[in-house]
Known about the structure:
This protein has ten helices and no strands.
Amino acid sequence: MDFTRPETVLDLANIRDELVRMEDSIIFKFIERSHFPTCPAVYLKNDPRLPLPDFEGSFLDWALIHMEITHSQLRRFESPDETPFFPDKIVKPILPSINYPRVLAPYAPQVNYNDKVKTLYEKEIIPLISKCDGDRPENYGSVATSDIEALQSLSRRIHFGKFVAEAKFQDDKPLYTDLIKRGDIDGIMQHITNSAVEEKILQRLIRKAEVYGVDPINNQNERRITPEYLVKIYKEFVIPLTKDVEIDYLLKRLEYP
Length: 257
Ligand SMILES: C=C(O[C@@H]1C=C(C(=O)O)C=C[C@H]1O)C(=O)O
């Protein structure tokens, strides 16, 4: 997929291949996070264990904002497949702009589900992928670094729903134009859903978790990322949020030619 060549981006088969590649990134980021305990202090607003002068928010919020400011200076958020968690904080790149040809509708950057992504990650995913419950102050920096990597991978995967939606719209404009005009959200959900593709993804995740998630040197055959947890994360969070992004993107699509 080459974002300077729109024809490679709006090919649904190419998009699905890219989603498959993202599975490996997400699994490996989860495995990295699984080396540490839950470290709840990292996610609590203004926690006394992590004093942050002149800042309202959690340690992870602080770390993510500073990482996104640096990444924005390196042009990360000019790329149409990257969506910031703190869009109001990012700054102009220090590198020259790349004028990517337009692939998505101009409002695409405003389709931003990262608040939901971060909340679900902290509340639902961390308890599943952490090594154990507990707080280890010596791990706070590593935990935040690992969380940022995992959040950025999850965000990219979920917001790829914009490309899926645009590809589906282009493939059947009459159908989606009628559904959008009637505000038929259930009808849009029905037509963007491909249960066979979803099932294939879940089956593949089980196999990947069985291979990647087992620690080869651990003779107790303990899993670092269980297949069941990975399926739960995708089935209950990643795929539904991707489809929410698809629907949200499509509902505004007729505002632009
Ligand atoms: C991403 C797509 O749209 C939907 C969402 C999917 C997902 O998030 O994995 C898979 C199939 C569809 O239900 C697609 O059609 O490939």
